[in-house]
Structures are given as structure tokens and as C-alpha cells.
Design a protein that fits this description.
The chain contains 2 helices and 10 strands; from the N terminus they run H-H-E-E-E-E-E-E-E-E-E-E. By secondary structure, the protein is an alpha/beta fold. Strands 1, 2, 5, 8 and 9 form a 5-stranded mixed sheet that branches. Strands 4-3-6-7-10 form a 5-stranded mixed sheet, with no helix packed on it. Strand 1 (37-43) and strand 2 form a beta hairpin.
Length: 153
Amino acid sequence: MSWLRPLYGHTLAVTRLLLLGCGILALGCGGTATYPLKGKATFAGQPIPAGTITFTPDGAKGNTGPVGYAIITNGDYDTSASGGKGIAGGPTIVKIEGSDGVRIDDDRPKGKALFPYFEMPADLPKSAGTKDFDVPAAATKMKPGGVKGVITP
């Protein structure tokens, strides 16, 4: 244990450095706040039977943070439900994918796609909230990722 002898005089300093390092790591792990969002997801006014909705902060508008998401079931979504993650809020790109909910096979458990994935900009609250989204019927004729209008809270 003679190799420990040089550390004896520095025990307090080493302990302080370790505590400081742990404190910095704890602050870094806090992450960005996220907020629960729920609502209705419809296609041409009708509930989307099965799908996903993703909320990506719009970096082009200076927004940053984690991507939020939720599963759409019978036209409802909730980022705080199992399989979901809260949103960052602010300028966001919302991506919606919808299917008929009738299983085809292992590769298509949610069935046939109702439309190519659809994206739209939205300005979402930085608080818990409710927001409904409607994918227009014209989305079936758009290229995947078609952007339609600006959605505001």
C-alpha cells in the first residue's frame, strides 16, 4: 500500500474534485424539458386507425431539443402514454404516418398506409397541452413529406 502514500496528503482535494465532477455530470444529464401533448389525429376528417406522430424541433427556426413522439390509436395520440415521449415545444415539424389498422403481415402489422407520410410545421406550446391535427385528403396525391399550411396552438 505504499503506492497510496502520496495520496494521503491530498485526500480532501481529491474528494472535492470527485464531488465537483459528479455535480457537473448530474447537471449535464438533466436534459431539456419536455411537455406532454395529446389530441386527435385525423385524415380527411376521419380518425386515423393506427399510426405514429413525431414532433421534431424546427432547427431552421432556431428551435432545439429532443424529438417527441406518440402512437396513434383510433384517432387519438398522447405523448405521455406508453411508447411515447414528450415534446420540446416551440417551432416544430410534425410528421404523421397513418394506416388502416388491418394487419397484413409481419412487415405491415398496422396495415395499408392511408397516405404517404405527411409533414407540417406547427408552433407548439412549451407546456402540457392538447392539439388536434388533420391530414388533408389531398395528401394521398402529395410526395412523402408534403408540407401543408401552418398550424398554430
